[in-house]
Amino acid sequence: MYRPSKPARLIVALLLLSLCSASLLVDNTSAKTRRAQELVETADKVSPDLRAIIQSGNGSSRVKVLVQTSSDPNLLSSLLNLVTNLGGTVLKTLTRLNVQLVDIPANAVDVLATESSVLYISGDNLVRSFGHLTTTSGAQQSRAQKGLLGSYTLDGSLIGIAIIDSGIDPNHKSFSGQLLKISANQDFTGENRTDDPYGHGTHVAAIAAGEGAPTKNKYEGIAPGAHLINLRVLDSQGVGTISGLLSSLDWVLANRLLFNIRVVNMSLGTPAINSYRNDPLCQAVRRLSDAGIVVVAAAGNNGKDGSNQKIYGAIHSPGNEPSAITVGASNSFGTDARKDDVVTTYSSRGPTRSFYTDIYGVKHYDNLIKPDLVAPGNKIIAAEAIDNLLVTNTPALETNIYKTPSSMKLMFLSGSSMSTPMVSGAAAMLLQLNPGLTPNMVKMILMYTAQPLANFNTLEQGAGQLNIAGAVTLAKMVKTDPLGLFTPALGSALLNGSAPAAQTTIASASFPWTQGLVLNHTVVTGKDLITKYQKSYGKGYLLGEGINETFSAQSFNYAMWTKGLKLATYLTVSNGTALYGGSYFAPTNLFLGDGVVMGDGVVMGDGVVMGDGVVMGDGVVMGDAAMQALSATLNGDPGPTMR
Predict the structure, then answer these.
(1) How far is CA 19 from the centre of its chain?
(2) Which of 17, 19, 281, 472 sees the fewest Cβ atoms within 10 Å?
(3) Predicted model pTM
């Protein structure tokens, strides 16, 4: 098979960067206009968590806050003067995101919010991680491809995947076979190191793009040819801050062309309190998506409470952002065949319960249907960083498959943290195959070709389980312009040729594709999704734009969508067939009306809807993959509670 040498691939990558820069850019004017129109004008520009501190009697204490501002430089100088006059200090300015990190007395936040340039103020809360793949996902059977230059291996070559996590152990054999496999390292924790003393990021990076040669391809990553950008935001204890995470995203925007960063993996999060329209993490993710970067985020691991009660509404930020590909966890039970696969009990379910408060004090919940899809995330074996804290605290996480050398050790972890890099690796494969795909096209392809898992509803599995083999089949047929020189007309042919058969065979067993998309508050089905170009497939749009909503109904805007599509009126518990066949679960209008219909604590079929998006009331995301492993046996489904 034809495969260029590692140095040659890097040279080609740089050439492609110079040729394809137009495809990575976006009409910033139109994107900013839409973002400004979407921004919610709330009665309170101060986030609920900060408001609670002010009202608790601790207003004299100092807090670190994230101030989202307008881009007008004249207004910015006025803001900086006000911060100083209020006894505050600007600690950091993220120019590409229009965010200021400010240290200020809590009681002064309300005065700061009156400044005309201030859009929203939220707390700099803590962020934590959440914790046979290539065969069961269909990645391995998609490796061999034919192109204009002959046969080649589809493995993510030339694509940069940014791993925003706890660092990567550069000496592990999973990353040592390629020149500049880890092409950049940056620390945003203040610990001035980019290795992985915690152990989470190395495992995540290996799932996305670990090399298979050291293990004879048995524990190969999904896109082993991709290069990694190591952005460390979680410290040696596995904890980070929102400001550190925002700094890493700002860095990505500044360096995306230099390292051809096409995918960002975020196996971490924080409680989704603020509406995605105001949440600074969600707004940053939107900017990356507008710039042509696929952002993949973990759904979280809060599918059940301590009483073994199924929970709905525990999707974390930035997984509550509609432009992100939000990934939940499935369990493949260690087999290649997929007929027995299930959604794990601990995987966070939708809808999103982030909210804003109007001038009458009424909370309006986002109620987006999430996750977008699920991928294997249970007891995943991948690279073990040397002397990491997770294994030190829980030796049972070590597999002992390779006892020596230390740079070959592998470990178990479970959670949506492990599912997320599977999707990131899949995205890298699709972008290598068809570099002109937009983030929305990648998301559409992954959802449309997903496998519906029987006996699970849409709020648990989204479109279904990741099917890389099907996604590759579809992606290679999609017409794109890698240089971004033209925009297809609405309704024009999307594919080169007829639509492929909507099914995939893995491990000698066939299953249908979902053949639909999960968008905002509904499900869209129809063959036009892959045969005709839809306007929202372009950069600078949300995939769900153009679906009109009233208090109780939804309809298509036919200036954005073609007429051969159908909006679902209810969600189902899937029977494993296409087009969301199965039993009735909930009407889609339940998610409309700004959350008024679906109040806090309502029992929803088989579980409870959480309120305010707060799972752990302290601003810290628990549900870490490692935390689950502490209470898990090595067999079964390790979650907050055992099934």
Answers:
(1) 28
(2) 19
(3) 0.86
CA-to-CA distance for 366 and 357, rounded, in angstroms?
A: 11
Run of H or E including 571: strand 570-574
Which residue, 130, 99, 104, is CA-closest to 246?
99
Three-class HEC string of 94-114: ECCCCEEEEEEEHHHHHHHHC
| Catalytic hit among 49, 124, 155, 165 | 165
For 204, the 3-state DSSP assignment is helix
Both structure tokens of 271: 């409680």
Residue-wise burial string across 562-580, b where 16 or more C-beta atoms lie within 10 A, e elsewhere: beebebbeebbbbebebbb
Count of CB atoms situated within 10 Å of the CB of 317: 30
More confident residue, 636 or 310: 310
Q: Give yes or no: 417 in active site.
A: yes
Q: Which of 124, 114, 66 is nearest to 86 (CA)?
A: 114
Phi, psi (deg, nearest 5) at residue 68: -85, 130
Check 330, 417, 424, 574 and give the catalytic one: 417
pLDDT for res 607: 65
The CA distance from 381 to 414, in Å, is 9
Judge whether residue 602 has pLDDT over 80: no
How many residues are recorded in the chain? 643
What are the two backbone dihedrals, phi and then psi, of residue 548, each rounded to the nearest 5 degrees? -75, 145
> Mean pLDDT highest for which of 26-35, 283-292, 295-304, 607-616?
283-292
Catalytic residue among 23, 155, 187, 200: 200
Which letter, b or e, does each residue of 522-557 get, where b requires 16 or more Cβ atoms within 10 Å of its Cβ?
bbbbbebbbebbbbbbbbbbbbbbbbebeeeebebe
- Whole-angstrom distance, CA of residue 396 vs CA of residue 632: 10
Alpha carbon separation from 510 to 196, 329, 332, 560 (Å, rounded): 40, 21, 16, 34
Query: Are 124 and 243 within 8 A, CB to CB?
Result: yes
Task: Tell me which residue of 609, 620, 83, 602 sits closest to 352, measured CA to CA.
Answer: 609
Which H helix or E strand runs over 512?
strand 509-512
